[in-house]
Amino acid sequence: MQVVILIPIMFSLAMFGSSNGTIKVNKSKEMSTSNDENIQIIQKYLNRKVYKDLTKEIINQTPDDQLTTVIFDNISSKLPKDNKKEYKTILTLSKGRQAIYTIWCVEGEVNNGGFNQFYFNSSGQYAHLAPEAFKLVGADKLAELMQRTNNIYETNKKSIKRLQDGTLEGFNESYKDNPLNKLDHEFYELSKTEDLNQLQISFIKNNIDQFIDK
């Protein structure tokens, strides 16, 4: 079973009005307006332009709050349809692109369902690349946390995966007494302290050659 992230990390679950990420329609006029605006934001994101070929000009002209998304989309456009070949394809890219893609995967999964979800989903295949990815963009504390989390997962992998029998119930059960749970809060707090988004923006701008196609 694959737990799918439908909405990227920039949209918090709180925005949708429920803990499971579904959109609730509130009958009050005030809340209805808010929900309409949120839906428009989501639609704008889903209809965003994807650049299959990035240039210095495109990167320089992209607003900071959209830069990591533009880079991620560009990388995603290079991935093969066969998901089994995704990992090998990512490894052929520059270290900078590997880092941004890996960080996006970690953030998306952890913010959506914690480290337990990250390792359970296919994104977990990038776990060993994550410490280096965080370190490359200057997030040293997150790099240390990621290495520590990898070690804890490897030590407890058998007991964690024992409950993950391919059903939603089994996946939910695997959160109980899971040693990874306590690390989720650390990740959330460190992401604020180290300003992970700004670190990635600065890294991209200072290493543009690693992200351009022509």
Instruction: Specify the CATH architecture of the largest domain.
Output: Up-down Bundle
Number of strands: 0
Order of helices and strands: HHHHHHHHHH
Q: Into which percentage range does the β-strand content fall?
A: under 5%
> In this structure, how is the largest beta sheet organized?
none
C-alpha-based Rg, rounded: 18 Å
At the first level of CATH, what is the class of the largest domain? Mainly Alpha
Count the DSSP helices: 10
Low-confidence stretches: 1-31
Q: What is the helix content? A: 55-70%
Distance between the termini: 39 Å
Overall 3D shape? globular
Structural class by helix and strand composition: mainly alpha
According to CATH, the fold-level topology of the largest domain is A middle domain of Talin 1
Give the overall average pLDDT: 85
Number of domains: 2
Write the topology of this structure:
Layout: H1 29-46, H2 56-61, H3 64-76, H4 86-91, H5 95-120, H6 130-136, H7 140-162, H8 168-173, H9 181-193, H10 196-206
Helix pairs in contact: 3-5, 5-6, 5-7, 5-9, 6-7, 7-9
